[in-house]
Structures are given as structure tokens and as C-alpha cells.
């Protein structure tokens, strides 16, 4: 985001969320590289956590592809890796495991509803939009594009990091909501650098909850849609926000102003293919 500086917005220690995410994926992939396909399926079925199942399915998608047949048959149809991933996505949605929802949605090729409209709303208000992480992988969106092309552009910018690519889609929708309802937030802003915004959001979490960068990255990706919107609004407005700890060890974020919760009711993200 360029054109002005807000107190506390420019961070000299912004860390790369995508780098942390990819490092974890590479580490988990190394665990499975010498394991047979059938054994991986057995491990996945016996895994106690959705996260472990997600790690195994991520590896299967990368190594074998979404359409690889698992050897099982349901109602006369072969079960493919994509079917297992869809099932995991649905269970992650049910459990509100938002980090896993975002990651599996990315692997399934889903996109946020109204993505194209959101980007168009930003562009017609004379805002340049960039996606990808600075300084080397930013891509500028200069004209309205169909949703399918936008999805490809965004996910190409983030490489194998499906989680941050999906988060970028989500933030574009929220930014469009804000520019329609609170245009003053964007006064004198010439460019919206979504990758930089993600870095700053992660840095704000790390500073506020006093944790290491990789822990803050995990918490950022696991925020609910409403909490993510609250945190983004805090970044855009420079207002203070509350952060608390839930019993599960996760965090919840709310604005110290009641205006945000009234203007933006809690709603789940709608991902479509």
C-alpha cells in the first residue's frame, strides 16, 4: 500500500508468510517421500488430526495429481485423490479449521465468490492492485479480468503456497467491501500491495501476542473470516484492536470500536469452483 504512511503500518521486520508455509510443506513432504501410496492412504485414515491428513493429501496431490485413482470404488465409481481432498475440505469447514479450509480450497482450485467484481471495484476507483510477495514476486493487475484468469494469476504469483494465494483472494474481497462503504480509508492511497498487507498483518499478530514469526503466520492463516476482516480493517484504519485467547489455544480478534461488527456481520467465506 503506497501513497501515505500510517503510524505503525510500515514494518521493518515484516516476515515472509509464504516462506514459512512452504518450509513446513517441504519438511512434511520429506517425511512421506519413501512411503508407498497404499501405506500413505492407511496412515491418512488412521491419522488423529485433520492437519496430519492434510499433510498427507498435500503430498499425494503434488506427487500423483488430483485425478490419481486410490484403488477404492464407491457406487461403481473409482475414488480419486480429489475425492479424498473434497472430503477433507468439507470436514475442515465443519470444524472451522480455517487454515486447512484455505489450503484445501486452494488445492481444489476454488476461488472466492465475487473475486472479479471485487478487483474491478478497486480498479475503477483508480487503485493499482498488486499480488504476490515483495520485493521479487509481485504482479500488478492493470485491468478487470474474468474470475478464472484472476485465480490463475494470483496462484501463479504465490507458487506452491495455496494458503497465501487463497488468503489474497479473501483480502481482495474485503478491500472491495471497505472501498465501497468507507472510501476515506483509501484516501491518497495509490497502490494496494496485498502481499505487503499480508506481511504487515502477520507482523501485527507477532507483535501483539509476542510470538515468533512462524507461530504468528500459523495464527494468521487460522483466523476466521470475520477475524481476518477485523484485522485488515485495523491495518487500514490504524485503529486499535482487541486480541484474546480461546480455550483451544487459538486467538480471536475484535475491534475496540463497535462500528465494525455492525457494518460487517459474521459470515463464512463462499468458495466456488
Automatic annotation (TrEMBL):
What are the recorded GO MF terms, alphabetically? calmodulin binding
Biological pathway:
Glycan biosynthesis; glycogen metabolism
Stated role = Phosphorylase b kinase catalyzes the phosphorylation of serine in certain substrates, including troponin I.
Q: Per the UniProt entry, what is one GO biological process?
A: glycogen metabolic process
Q: What is this protein called?
A: Phosphorylase b kinase regulatory subunit
The record's section on InterPro entries has: GH15-like, PHK_A/B_su
Presence of keyword Cell membrane: yes
Q: How does it sit in the membrane?
A: Lipid-anchor
Q: Which GO terms describe its cellular component?
A: phosphorylase kinase complex; plasma membrane
Compartments annotated for it: namely: Cell membrane
Amino acid at each position: 500500500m503506497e501513497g501515505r504512511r500510517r503510524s505503525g503500518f510500515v514494518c521493518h521486520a515484516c516476515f515472509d508468510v509464504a516462506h514459512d508455509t512452504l518450509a513446513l510443506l517441504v519438511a512434511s513432504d520429506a517425511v512421506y517421500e519413501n512411503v508407498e501410496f497404499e501405506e500413505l492412504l492407511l496412515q491418512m485414515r488412521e491419522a488423529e488430526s485433520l492437519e496430519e491428513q492434510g499433510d498427507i493429501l498435500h503430498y499425494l496431490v503434488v506427487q500423483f495429481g488430483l485425478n490419481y485413482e486410490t484403488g477404492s470404488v464407491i457406487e461403481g465409481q473409482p475414488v480419486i485423490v480429489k475425492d479424498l481432498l473434497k472430503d477433507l475440505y468439507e470436514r475442515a469447514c465443519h470444524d472451522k479449521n480455517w487454515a486447512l479450509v484455505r489450503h484445501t480450497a486452494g488445492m481444489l482450485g476454488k476461488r472466492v465468490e465475487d473475486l472479479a467484481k471485487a478487483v474491478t471495484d478497486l480498479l475503477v476507483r483508480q487503485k493499482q492492485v498488486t499480488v504476490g510477495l515483495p520485493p521479487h514476486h509481485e504482479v500488478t493487475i492493470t485491468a478487470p479480468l474474468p474470475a478464472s484468469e484472476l485465480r490463475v494469476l494470483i496462484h501463479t504469483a504465490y507458487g506452491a503456497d495455496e494458503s497465501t494465494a487463497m488468503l489474497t483472494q479473501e483480502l481482495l474481497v474485503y478491500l472491495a467491501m471497505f472501498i465501497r462503504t468507507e472510501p476515506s480509508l483509501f484516501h491518497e492511497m495509490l497502490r494496494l500491495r496485498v502481499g505487503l498487507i499480508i506481511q504487515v498483518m502477520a507482523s501485527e499478530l507477532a507483535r501483539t501476542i509476542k510470538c515468533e514469526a512462524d507461530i504468528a503466520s500459523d495464527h494468521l492463516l487460522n483466523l476466521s473470516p470475520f477475524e481476518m476482516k477485523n484485522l485488515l480493517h485495523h491495518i487500514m484504519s490504524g485503529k486499535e484492536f482487541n486480541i484474546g485467547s480461546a480455550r483451544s489455544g487459538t486467538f480471536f480478534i475484535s475491534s475496540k470500536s463497535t462500528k465494525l461488527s455492525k457494518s460487517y456481520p459474521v459470515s463464512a467465506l463462499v468458495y466456488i469452483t
